[in-house]
Model the fold of this input.
Amino acid sequence: MKLYDFDAMFDEKLSDYISKNVGKYKEEEWEDIIPKLYRKFGDTVIKSIGKTPREYYASMESGELIKCLKAHLKNGVPVSEFLCKEIENRDLTAELLPLLDGSEEEREYAVNLIGPDERAIAKYMSMLRECDDEEFKERLADNIKQKADLVLSQALAEYKEGRNAEIMLEIMSRSAVRDDEVFTVLLNAFRGDDDNIPMHASYLAAYGDERALPYLLDKIDEEGITFAEYRELKFAIESLGGEYTKERDFSSDPYYQALKGTSSTDGTDIFSIFDKRS
Done:
């Protein structure tokens, strides 16, 4: 199979384009221009191939696309966005699943391309147990928590066994299934860890069980909480339908002082920015 480094071809054309337009654009303008040039390159016929990069991959059978991806990774040839896009445009989860047992690079690409497909969630859970890479664990967890209902009982069991406890808490918190034991676990984690109040408050907010409100209200009323903790607790309370209106003085809090000293060019209240959740 012939492997083409389309990114290197683009970089060569881009270098030539930049040299011909020195001083014409500001740095922030180049940030918009380069992606547009890359998209245009995807529809440009490469004379030596007789096809555009997009056409080259679109003409392949599904099995060939996966073989091409593996060959790129094995031979150290950069994988272009055009190859990844063509794979994403087809339902190739079944063909990608074997890559989850492949090399490190194959696993990483497979997770990115498969995403939160429910056919991969069980495998992601088993990969979490075997993984030592914290960044990769986060990527697995990001996909799993989008289908948290499928692995709720397993996440609870893993938590009880002490495996990836914080990740399991986050996964459980994203479940739409109401379970008294899961709620108790999330609540106890919140009540029993004063070093991670914002994080555990966010889990209670995500789970959405109003029974957490009295505990959140008790915690936010404590004199010793920091401004960062106060803001996350207040958000959690409001997300569960509660309200906390007591005036608090955080003027001596370093985090509060840092935010207060941050000005916004458009006049936006810097504190209101941190109240917004996606």
Notes: The CA atoms of residues 125 and 154 lie 9 Å apart.
